[in-house]
Amino acid sequence: MRQELLSLPKTLAEDVARNLVMVARLIDEDPEQAYAYSRIALRLASRVAAVREAAGFAAYATQKYSEALAEFRAARRMTGSVELWPVMADCERGLGRPERALAMAGEPEVQKLDKAGQVEMRLVAAGARRDMGQLDAAIVTLQSPELASHSVQSWTARLRYAYADALLEADRESEAREWFAKALEADKDGSTNASDRLAELDGVEFLDAEDQNAADEDVTADEDVTDEDVADEDAEDGADDREALEAAESGAGDSDAVAADGERVEEPDVEQVEEQDEDRRDEDGAVTGTDRADRD
C-alpha cells in the first residue's frame, strides 16, 4: 500500500493514509464509522487499488454487498490478484445468489489461492450449500485434509467451528459438541463463540456481570435499612395521621360551612328561616281553602 500511495502528491498521500488507518482501526468495533472514512479516502484517491480494497471491506462489514463487490472487482482489475476471490464469492451469497458463489468455487482462480485462501473458499462454498438447503453437501464440503490436520493455523478455529455448526443443524449433536471443543482449542484470539456454543449444549447458563452487580447493589441497599429507620418512618406516619384528625375536628366545629368549590359561606339566620317557613304554611292554607270551595 505504501508503494501505491507514493504515486500521489505528498500531502494527498498523507490524507489518504490517515483515512485508511482509521478504516483499519474501526472496521471491527464501529463498521459504519470505518465506512465513512473509506468514502473519504475513495474521493481522494479512487485510482489506488489499496483504497478500493479498503472501501470494499468497509462496505462488506456494513453488509453493503453490492457496493463491496464493485470495489473488490475494481481492485482486482487494478492488481490482477486473485486473493479477493473468496470474499467476492461471499458477496454473491450476501446478495442472495449462492449458486454464483458455488460457480466461483469451481473456477481456476481458486487453484491460484494460497492455503488460507483455499480454506476460505471452502467455507464460502459450504455456506452457499447451506443457503440452498443442501446441508449434507455442506458437511462433505468442509471435510478436508485441513479439517483433519492437528496443526493449528489462522483459519483452523473457523473451519472447525463451521463444521460443528453444520453438524448441529443436521441433529448430530454429539459430533457437533466434539468439534466445537476442537474449535475452542484452536481459537487463541477469540474469533469464534465456540465456548458459548459448548455451554449451550451442556445446559450451562451464564449471568451477565452487570446484571449481577445491579442485583447485589439492590440487596445491599435493602440490608442497609435498619429497624430504627423503619420505626422513625412509622412515627412520622403517625404524626401525620394525628394532624389530619385534628384538622378534621377543627373544621367540624367551625360556625362557617365550606362550599364544594372551596369557598366559605355564612350559615343562614335562624329567625329568617322560621319566617320563610311560616309564609309557606300560609300559602298552603290558602290553596287548600280554594280547593275546598271549588269542590262545594
Q: What proportion strand?
A: under 5%
For the record, give the distance between the C-alpha atoms at the N and C termini, rounded to a whole number.
130 Å
Uncertain stretches of 5 or more adjacent residues: 252-268, 284-296
**E-strand count:** 2
Number of helices, counting only DSSP H or I runs of 4 residues or more: 16
Percentage of residues assigned to helices: over 70%
Strand order of the largest sheet: 1-2
Give a quick account of the main beta sheet: strands, pairing sense, barrel closure: 2 strands, antiparallel
Residue-averaged pLDDT, rounded? 82
Radius of gyration over C-alpha positions, nearest whole angstrom: 42 Å
**Would you list the SSEs in sequence order as H and E?**
HHHHHHHHHHHHHHHEEH
Assign an overall shape. globular
Secondary structure class reads: mainly alpha
Task: Give a structural overview.
The chain is mainly α. It contains 16 helices and two strands. Strands 1-2 form a two-stranded antiparallel sheet. The protein is globular, with a radius of gyration of 42 Å. The termini are far apart.
